[in-house]
Amino acid sequence: MSGTSAVQGKIAATASPKGYASKSEASDIVMGTYARQDIVFARGEGVWLIADSGERFLDFGSGVAVNNLGHAHPRLVAALAEQAGKLWHTSNLYRVEGQETVAARLAELTFAEKIFFCNSGAEACEGAIKVARRYQFVSGHPERQRIITFSGAFHGRTLATLAAGGNEKYLEGFAPTADGFDNLPFGDHAALEAAITPATAAIMIEPVQGEGGVRQVPAQCLQGLRTLCDQHGLLLIFDEVQTGIGRSGKLFAHEWAGVTPDVMAVAKGLGGGFPVGAVLATAEAAKGMTPGTHGSTFGGNPLAMAVASAVIDVVTEAGFLEDVQMKALRLKQGLASLKDRFPSVVEDVRGVGLLTGLKLTSGIAPAALVKAALGEHLLLVGAGDNTVRVLPPLIATESEIADGIERLSRALQSVAREHS
Predict the structure, then answer these.
(1) Do 364 and 191 touch, CB atoms closer than 8 A?
(2) What is the per-residue pLDDT across 318-370, written as a single tens digit (0 to 9) for each?
(3) Segment (H or E) for 183
């Protein structure tokens, strides 16, 4: 058989999973970049995920802080279904009505005056980086290209955002590392001031490091960054990919500190599970983003905009965020009680709003607690700094939060027994 015929024969043989002896063999075709749990979810209902086996799991991972409104929220389903029957995609060669609607809402609700739509958090962070460098370029400072970031940060998996995060584990095997980032120790103010040079363009930070261990940046530190940027002519970039759209109890986490950035990256909760991201900026910061400087084929397509609009409508309804704050208080109280009951396992309770985490004691890996919780049909998410994230959907009721705490209690008890 010729080379071409052999390839065609392989494609034909693998075109359908029915050609495999088992589902596990078919799953091996998917590139193995994730250590996946051996579960297939068939559907979701609010805070619950239902496996193809029929088992129900309480989802306190929210698709890694994506499903802020839970699963199959009726208003999101209706918005998507209605738009799907009208128009899916036209590209950004033409005006997209939904973009203008969502942009106007976000501008009304935030500091932003200019907004670019994309598909993911990594793209939003890439866009924010480009906005900052382009701003300095058109302002007559082309030498200002470097961006200060912080250890423990996670800004995405592209080559530039990996370099921005500076995590050696994620950078391994992808040399050369993209230049232009100065990654500093978390919370080292002296190092920060010393790192600002005539080549610095911006400072980029997450108000709460999610992937980095649910480490919250104190309000005074964010305020200090704003002052430093103003003093040195730098742009302040907030990565609110994980913290935004109500997860902190405010629409955006930086609101707790009473400061605003020049540029902000948003995604995850903005689509409630549908892929969408955005770069928000002041008109001054975005002045260099002229035709041809940036783009996205799929970004801001009519489907994404219909869902994002529905998400914003729900999250900004009267009383919604106040309810999130009350639920967050209940969750934090429950987690604090677990810390007291299991001091050999839990070292600290972290976070703000419904972005919370348990920092575990040394010698106990996050994977151990995630696995034990799975045995209790509770879904959690691991993080850096030996932390496990607890991320209920914002629509979780107090009884569902209490249920989650009880399941987590049994999981912690199991881990404590194993490590006694």
Answers:
(1) no
(2) 999 999 999 999 999 999 999 999 999 999 999 999 999 999 999 999 999 99
(3) strand 181-184
Beta carbons within 10 angstroms of residue 24's beta carbon: 9
Convert the pLDDT of each residue in 207-222 to its tens digit.
Answer: 999 999 999 999 999 9
| Residue 64, Ramachandran bin (φ over 0: left; ψ between -120 and 50: alpha; else beta) | left
- Based on the number of CB atoms within 10 Å of its own CB, is 322 exposed (0-12), middle (13-18) or buried (19 or more)? exposed
CATH 3.90.1150.10 matches 21-72+319-418: yes
User: What is the C-alpha to C-alpha distance for residues 207 and 216, in angstroms, rounded to an integer?
Assistant: 6
The SS3 call for residue 205 is: strand
End-to-end CA distance of the chain: give it in Å, rounded.
61
Domain ranges within the chain, ordered by starting residue? 21-72+319-418, 87-315
pTM above 0.90, yes or no: yes
User: β-pairing, 235-239 with 215-216?
Assistant: unpaired
Packing angle between helix 320-341 and helix 398-418, nearest 10 degrees? 20
Length of the chain in terms of residues written: 420
Give the architecture (CATH level 2) of 87-315. 3-Layer(aba) Sandwich (3.40)
Token digits of residue 340: 């007291």
Longest dimension (CA), the chain: 70
